[in-house]
Task: inverse folding
């Protein structure tokens, strides 16, 4: 199965060119297919270097960029996109959000900052929101328990799966953290 979405019977508008940059292949492919069904001409990239190669050939009208990519930073990529095409409407996606990165994303020119797993409806609402207006809130936002769980998982990942270091950084007891990590993700 190819990583690039296949052309569908739905005609695409050249003004609806969309670049999706995410290192999570299943998510990237799923979002790409969903956006193609909405009439976008989708191009997929796994990381910063692949996105740069695409940007040398064409500048998209829209972009959806993951904040943390294996080979670089999504905010820097949004800056590059805007250097190439100033009117590109870019959305930053992240599995680990905080106010500092949200502010940095907006300063870089992102029109919105969405938590993963964002669905195609949320992404399209953000991309098409009138300038200066926020899109409608998502129909099914993550629960507070899910946001907490995602945050713990991200810190755990950044600490190279070291339970003691993660617990120290989160200010929680190591055994409490072990119990949380042993459970499934809340809905």
Result:
């Amino acid at each position: 199965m190819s990583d690039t979405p296949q052309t569908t019977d739905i005609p695409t508008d050249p003004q609806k060119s969309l670049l999706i940059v995410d290192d999570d292949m299943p998510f990237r492919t799923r979002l790409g297919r969903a956006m193609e069904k909405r009439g976008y001409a989708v191009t997929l990239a796994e990381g910063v270097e692949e996105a740069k190669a695409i940007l040398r050939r064409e500048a998209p009208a829209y972009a959806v960029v993951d904040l943390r990519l294996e080979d670089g930073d999504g905010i820097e990529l949004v800056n590059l996109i805007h250097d190439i095409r100033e009117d590109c409407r870019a959305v930053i996606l992240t599995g680990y959000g905080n106010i500092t990165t949200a502010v940095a994303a907006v300063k870089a020119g992102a029109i919105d900052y969405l938590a993963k797993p964002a669905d195609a409806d949320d992404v399209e609402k953000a991309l098409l929101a009138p300038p200066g207006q926020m899109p409608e809130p998502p129909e099914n936002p993550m629960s507070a328990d899910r946001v907490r769980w995602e945050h713990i998982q991200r810190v755990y990942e950044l600490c190279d799966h070291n339970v003691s270091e993660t617990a120290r950084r989160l200010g929680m007891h190591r055994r409490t953290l072990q119990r949380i990590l042993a459970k499934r993700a809340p809905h």
Observations:
- Residues 144-158 form the longest helix (15 residues).
- The domain at 14-128 is CATH 3.40.50.2300 (Rossmann fold).
- The radius of gyration is 17 Å.
